[in-house]
Amino acid sequence: MKTGAESKTKLRVAIVLGIVAIVSLAWVLIPESEPKPAPAVATAASQEKAKTAWGNESLDPRLRLDLLANSEKVKYEGKGTNIFRAVEQVDIPRVTVPPLSRQQKEAQQKAANLPPPPPPINLKYFGISNSKGERPQAFLSQGDDVWIAHEGDVVNRHYKIVHISPTAVEVEDLLNNNRQSISRTQG
Q: What is each CA distance from 125 to 26, 30, 166, in whole angstroms?
């Protein structure tokens, strides 16, 4: 063992750290010396107060079948509302509609016999590429899908590109046999 100055300083640091550790451990493990309050003793006044708060019955924890039988005999007499509905049901007044004339009935029948209009073509035309010596290309989109198409191409297995111009593109819906001109959109 060395007895030089270096080993003495290490020994002193170790002793100081040991003392600090012992004091910290004692601080945590030894309970405080403050007196704890004594448990409250039930006085006659507090018992009487408890009896009046709960009626004149005792605080006996045993099951009282006579009180349960009385509570089962109680019938609910509410307003008749449904507590599970968020909104009260309101009586809606009936609206009387005047009878239709003969001409109005005929117009309704004619409108009922017409086939419904074809659904609109929901493609967006947002650009054109018109390079010299090449056929024009239209840039089309539907949702997140984007297509580049020439005249005569079929887009999305559903729409045929009939004519491309810088301002609009003419599209034919092959399923519904419907043609529509779609204007170029900005942005």
A: 81, 82, 10
pTM of the model: 0.41
Residue ranges and CATH numbers for the domains of the chain are 124-183 (2.30.30)
Rounded distance between C-alpha atoms, residue 83 and residue 145, angstroms: 49
pLDDT at 41 (0 to 100):
52
- Estimate to the nearest angstrom the gap between the alpha carbon of 144 and the chain centroid: 24
Phi, psi of 148 (to 5 degrees): -115, 120
Q: What average pLDDT does the chain have?
A: 80
Six-digit token string for 82:
């449904």
Which residue, 120, 118, 128, is CA-closest to 168?
A: 128
Contact between residue 140 and residue 155 where contact means Cβ atoms under 8 Å apart: yes
Residues 35 and 15: their CA atoms lie apart, in Å, by: 35
Largest CA distance in the chain: 126
Q: What CA–CA distance (Å, rounded) separates 135 from 153? A: 12
Q: How many residues does the structure list for the chain?
A: 187
pLDDT by residue (tens digit) across 145-169? 999 999 999 999 889 999 999 899 9
